[in-house]
Design brief:
mainly alpha; 0% strand; elongated; binds zinc ion; zinc; DNA replication
Amino acid sequence: MDKQDIFGQVENMEEELGIAFANFTTFKKTVVKLMEENQRLSIENQQLRKLLKREADPALPAQGDKENPMIGEGYDNLARLYYEGFHICNVYYGHLRTEGDCMFCISFLNK
Ligand SMILES: [Zn+2]
């Protein structure tokens, strides 16, 4: 193997490492995204379980339509949902509020 071959191999290796590094960076970003999504879903799941438990508690007065709690849900329920960390605005309804107060929700509550 002459010097030209060795240098050619080193260059090939450099290129391959560059591609591998780019792939690794993309993979790392995907992992971060999935971890964030997992965290968000865990919190949302926890909140929903809490809500479900409360809805099923016979000691609390029944509210709205039992078949479908969303029908006839009043302002109080929406306000409660908001303060439990969920969006009630029509922009992000039902999603967890991950960044504090939401302008859309606030303006909806103040109507
Ligand atoms: Zn909102």
